[in-house]
Design a protein that fits this description.
Oligomer: single chain
Radius of gyration: 13 Å
Shape: globular
Structural class: mainly beta
Largest sheet: 5 strands, antiparallel
CATH class of the domain at 24-78: Mainly Beta
Number of strands: 5
CATH topology of the domain at 24-78: SH3 type barrels
Distance between the termini: 24 Å
Strand content: 25-35%
Order of helices and strands: EEEEE
Helix content: under 10%
Low-confidence stretches: 1-6
Mean pLDDT: 82
Number of helices: 0
């Protein structure tokens, strides 16, 4: 069995590897390429708004009011 099968996940839209994909849609799960704040490298976010080169993302957690961040498109990739 090919060990690369799990690592070679590709975007359904552009067919590029998920860690290089830039075609996001609202509702996608994203993560940071490199953490901007301590602890962000382990976090998963929901994409809630796409404003061209900026994205609004919301932390996936069980808090009553989930934290929201505005980030550059280049700083995140699909999870």
């Amino acid at each position: 069995m090919n060990n690369q099968a799990g690592k070679d996940k590709r975007c359904d839209t552009c067919r590029s590897p998920l860690d290089h994909c830039r075609c996001f849609t609202v509702g996608d799960k994203v993560r940071f390429r490199e953490a901007l704040d301590p602890g962000d490298e382990l976090c998963l976010f929901d994409l809630i708004e796409d404003n061209g080169d900026r994205l609004m993302i919301r932390l996936v957690c069980d808090l009553p009011i989930r934290p929201v961040k505005v980030v550059r498109r280049a700083d995140v990739c699909k999870a």
